[in-house]
Amino acid sequence: MDLKFKKEYCVVVTVLIKYKEKYLFDRNLQPIQGVLQYKERIEDCAQRLVKESYNQDISNLEFMGIGESFGRDYDHAHNFVLIAEVDDLSDETSYTLVEEGNYPDEWLPFIKAEDFDFYEYRNVEPNSLTSKDMSYTIMEGHELTFRVSALIRSDKGILFDDAHNLVGGRQMLNETIYQALEREVKEETGYDIDDSYFIGIAEDIVELPEFHKTVHYVNLVFEVSGDFSEPAASSVLWITEDEIEDINMGMVEVKQIIQSM
């Protein structure tokens, strides 16, 4: 089932195919694009789209960035952009090699990027949209939630909420990713963020039997800096990094990101 909810919200995956240092586009100078499916990992979606559209296997796959759009094809959309290297040209596709000088302007920032980055495209201002959590029912007992998480670190350890999740929560339809991060940290801790650094995408499928549902989480994780010397709100607690191994986190990939740092 596609993670597309009428004209309101969609999770898009874009794959720029690279062959011998050049890129392939269709006759309209568009890359491969598709919609992420329920319980599908972003990298698996990229593999599927390349196989379906280009009939080749990927030899190397790299995340290049996230495009966040407002008021274009959907009220709000997240577009995960990857570069896929292939070893062969396919005879069974409409995609062809394009000379560097003819690359479409929209995709040049991703092609030329040296590091993962975020991009915004606005036909409307985010605050003109309905204020609504980005949590959608796919069918009875199955949901998608798009959320942000903040790794807040001090000499006391890392800050968690009372459910052993990193501070954070659902992004809202009428805000950007960074606005969601600042809001969630402020609401849950009282702290203001000075700066943030993106550290990973966690894709967890979490069974919640007490609520009779399964949730597909797409979770953007940031390490944030600020003045964390004052006591935080009572709903959060500091856990030392040595103790993290023993805590039970439903979002396993978030835990893996923390432990890999």
- The name of the CATH architecture of the largest domain is Alpha-Beta Complex
CATH topology of the largest domain, what is it called?
A: Nucleoside Triphosphate Pyrophosphohydrolase
Whole-number radius of gyration? Answer: 20 Å
Could you name the CATH class of the largest domain?
Alpha Beta
SSE arrangement, N to C: EEEEHEEEHEEEEEHEEEH
Tally of distinct domains: 2
Fraction in beta strands: 35-45%
Mean pLDDT: 94
Assembly classification: single chain
Helix content: 10-25%
Poorly predicted tracts of residues: none
Structural class: alpha+beta
Shape type: globular
Concise summary:
The protein is of the alpha+beta class and 261 residues long.
Can you walk me through this structure?
It is built from 4 helices and 15 strands. It is an alpha+beta fold. It has 2 domains: 4-122, Nucleoside Triphosphate Pyrophosphohydrolase, CATH 3.90.79; 135-260, Nucleoside Triphosphate Pyrophosphohydrolase. Strand 2 (9-19) and strand 3 (22-25) form a beta hairpin. It is globular.
